[in-house]
Structure formats: structure tokens, C-alpha cells
Amino acid sequence: MRKYARQKLDVYKYTLANVNLRENNTATSKVLAVIPLGSMVQVIDAAEDWYEVIYNNLKGYVYDAFLSITKYTWRDTLLRSYPSAESNPVTVIPAKAEVQVLSVTGDWSQVIYNNRKGYIFTPFLSDDANPPTEYDFTYFYTDMTRFVNDNQIKSPTTNLITTDLENKLTYIFVQDDNNLWKQLYKWECTVGKPSTPTIKGTFYVTGRKPYFGTDAYRVKYATRIKGAYYYHSILFNAEGTEVIDDRLGMALSHGCIRLATENAQWIYDNILDATAIVIN
Asked: Which CATH architecture has domain 70-126?
């Protein structure tokens, strides 16, 4: 099996409430400090519902619900002082810039950009810095091979992964001698529930973990899509010895994409970093 170095995320987020910095990624572990509302923390790793962070030179874990959400602008847009197109502009945010979303009110998101707080019209934000109509999705849900080849999707490696959130299917492609994508596998998967949806867009594999979990569960063969979102196995108990939830073809995860254990392992063992992923 290939060996992969752990990759740091180098992301900064903001707390959405007074939150406990814990010694481990469990709700019962020791509290190292209380981080005040609105504080900036450096994210050094992420695994579904917990982030490993540094705050005031202390390293620990914070539950993801208490941290801002990373989004990107897909066009030049104004950061405004209030959630209205008639409010004064604070600054211009360029296309493909990273912002941290603090809250959403109607069609407006309160964000922090370069340490400046304001509001952005939510439709100008995406998970991957690309506009929502980057590809022609006509065949995405009915003929994935035609979709990837008609759109001439590029990947830095000879593989490509796609996930159809509607039909809850994940596809693995390999590039043939004619530079066309040939389907290797089609697997049933479980995706994010409505309250914690799976991100959509084009991403690139950025590292992996043999497992992660809490005192309640463990998942295996986790390959990072982006941030705290992974392809990984079905759920095991905390020790990793027994399956506790093998449901596939459903929308019930925290946002990660669950696969049968052998399929998650195949991705973990064979898919190189930087491989393109398309999720819709």
C-alpha cells in the first residue's frame, strides 16, 4: 500500500459561541480552555464532526457546529455592511476568495473576509469557488460516463471520482489510451442528511487517514475530499471491531460519503492525492 504523509489544512475559522477546547475529540474529554465567541482558531486537521485546532498556543478539539463554515466566492462581489443591496460596501471580494460564514439570514450570509465582517449575497458563494453551472449536468444522473466525457473533465491523475447525491452512487473512472474516461466501478453510498449536506462541486483529493472517530463510533479508510469531508467506510464501534451501521443508499451522514468498507479501502489504497472529484 502507498504511504501518505499527513497534510495540514492551514485554515482559520471563527467560533460561533463560547466553546470548550477539549483534549480529545469526545464530548466527555478534559476541557483545556473556553474559547470566547468570535475568536479565530487555526485548523490543523478535521474529521467529520470535530476539528483539531490551535488557540492561544493550545492544541485541542472543537465540535464543528461551533465553528464558521468555509465558502468561496465564484465571482467578484461586494462585502456589504448590512444584508441589503442598498447598504454601504465594505470592500470588494475577488473571485475564488475564501470567506468564513458565521450565519445566514434569508438570501444573505454574514461572513469574515481578511478579518473584516460583513454580508454577501449567498448565491455568490459556493463550496469549490466555481459557479453552480460549470458543467452541463444533463446526463449526470442517467449516464455518468457520458457526463464526464461530454464535459471533458480533467484530473491531474489518471483517475476521476464522481458522486451522484440524488441517486446516492459513487463512480470510479480511469483514463484510457484515447484520453477518455472509462468506468471502473459504481458503488452505492450514503450521503449527508438535509441538515448536514454533502458539499457540491469540483474538488481534489488532499490526504487520507486510516481511521477516525469518537467514543461512540469509528470509520475506516478515510480519503479527504475537502476539509472535514471524506469518503470513508460504514460505521464501526469505537474500537473498530464491529459494524454498528451498514446502511447505504441513504441521506443520513454528517456530510461525509460512506461506502462499503472494501470500497472505501480501494479508494484509500489506489487513488492518488490531487485526483479530481465531482459531486452533485
From this structure: Roll (2.30)
